[in-house]
């Protein structure tokens, strides 16, 4: 027990980077309950109907997407979006994350005057309102104040002074029309100087077809926007092969690859965002011991541990590091 406490403390202390975290999957339960209470007071929902859904500990992949539909009802307006973005950055900083790429699907809601752009602006307002830690969001030249497009250099001094670099990825939901997906890509390109650095393809992997939004992803390539794809979260050979052939800058999950696809992936060096607990909790992988992390790690394939949805799964990035060390420490091959 004492050993576990010390290890967890070390994993929390370790400066970390988070590259795969969905904004609406990173909401605190307490915030969701508060938002639900407000809507219940307005008779939009019945609080007792959603309370147990919010507090449920384990969710299958299907249940996750039902939960996301509920979250999208609860966190609809600009104010709520700003609040959850602020809290998400605070929570990642508290875990000693020094570089965070937060991803979110820009949403349009005519009834409240929300456009995809105003949605992203609400997210940015939240990131910029964080006070518990110094946030470096839009890199700008000290003299000219013009945005500079360099990657942050995170040195040990900065990690001591508690600073977090935050960047945004705009997500395309697999359910979206090609027009909506293209709108997101154009928006990401227009907001390149405002902290947006790329495009993600996510959403329920059993719904929609990535070939539908492929033209939008090709457009993103033309605009030189880096792309990350949710790939192989469920079995779908044709899609996995096509995604690897598309050669995105990164992929997330990579669970259901078969031998030939593992070969293609490893020879491509496409970095993989590893989401251990997300995969185990959604039962895409039977247990931590069975996770493909260790095979990729021992093959020296570029990878990064990520949370996916820390709010949805009640997890933290520090804990993911702890789980990886505990589960795989003994299997690591040490080259001479
Ligand atoms: C569990 N594995 C997953 N697989 C695929 N997509 C996922 C996901 N977890 C989250 N999302 C995607 O992120 C959205 C919520 O955040 P935003 O509203 O964009 O901030 C979900 O609706 C889904 O499209
Ligand atoms: Zn994800």
UniProtKB/TrEMBL annotation:
GO BP terms: adenosine catabolic process; inosine biosynthetic process; nucleotide metabolic process
GO molecular function: adenosine deaminase activity; metal ion binding
InterPro entries assigned: A_deaminase_dom (IPR001365), Ado/ade_deaminase (IPR006330), Metal_Hydrolase (IPR032466)
Cofactor list: Zn(2+)
A Pfam family hit: A_deaminase
Domain Adenosine deaminase: 15-329
SUPFAM superfamilies: Metallo-dependent hydrolases
Catalytically driven reaction(s): N(6)-methyl-AMP + H2O + H(+) = IMP + methylamine
Top-level lineage group: Eukaryota
Metal-binding recorded as keyword: yes
Keyword list, A-Z: Hydrolase, Metal-binding, Nucleotide metabolism, Zinc
UniProt family annotation: Belongs to the metallo-dependent hydrolases superfamily. Adenosine and AMP deaminases family.
Protein's name according to its UniProt entry: Adenosine deaminase domain-containing protein
